[in-house]
Amino acid sequence: MLDLHRLHVLATLAAEGTMTAAAARLHMTTSAVSQHVAQLEREVKVPLLVRHGRRVVLNEAGLALVGHYPSIAEAVEEAEAHVRSFQVDVHGTIALSAFPSFCSTVLPDALMRLRRAYPDLHVTVRDMEPIESIDHLCSGQIDVAVIDDLHPMSAEGISLTVLARDEVVLLQAPSRDIPTSISATARLRDYADAPWILDTEASAFARHVRSLCRAAGFEPKVVANCSNLVASLGLVRAGFGVALMSELNLGAATRDLDARPVDPPCSRTILVATRVAAGQAPSVQAVIRALQRTTRVRQHSASSG
Known about the structure:
Elements lengths: L3 H13 L2 H8 L3 H15 L4 E4 L2 E4 L1 H25 L7 E7 L1 H5 L1 H12 L3 E7 L2 H9 L5 E5 L9 E15 L13 E2 L7 E4 L5 H12 L5 E5 L3 H9 L5 E4 L11 E6 L3 E9 L6 H23 L1
Parallel strand pairs: 3-4, 3-5, 7-11, 8-9
Antiparallel strand pairs: 1-2, 5-12, 6-10, 6-11, 6-12
């Protein structure tokens, strides 16, 4: 029987053209990609590739197999979702991914809500950048992904549910001297000479912050790149720099910091992504509902506190 994951590897290899590029896209080693393809060739009992130096090209059999992959994957998942729709209770295992700051703030409460409501539902969690989450979602390694809209991505075969419109705020230590004028909002151009704390260089949010600063007329002087929210808040608290962050990060951990809306206003949309074929499964819907409720509670708490 054909293995869907190996078919996905072959389809990615066809799109990327080299084992190295496919491995990077799949977040696997080159050796693992090669092994998956070799196993698939053994299963179908015909060669699937023609090698031209470092590049690989699918032969006629390989192209035929890849051509069937989307319909095979969708049909299998639709069948699984259809069967699950007959369940009267929510159980099983859901693999969930979310970007790091969401994992640190909203997700813990959502997971505990799910555990109380559905003790037979088991959720596994990985923190990932949104693009990585979508890749894992499409390959079937993740069932539910929390992402944002800061970068373009293909929505083919993906169902998106809006969780929240998330305002971006500027955080600084209360004793900072920059800017000298006190106002209800933080004008980005007033922070041109301030030291900045950003997410990791590869993150979409860090690139978004840089673009906002450039639009305000300056290049941020970055003194730290941190994916860890606690570390970022600690550096801000010490006066080491300022940071732009999600309003959802506001709470008990930020009450001693100066948080201001950004001028000009800036926001992003937080979304839940699922595969269309599996999106109506009871377990997936239970996870989405828990994420929606917890996000609303968190947003209300942030705006009122």
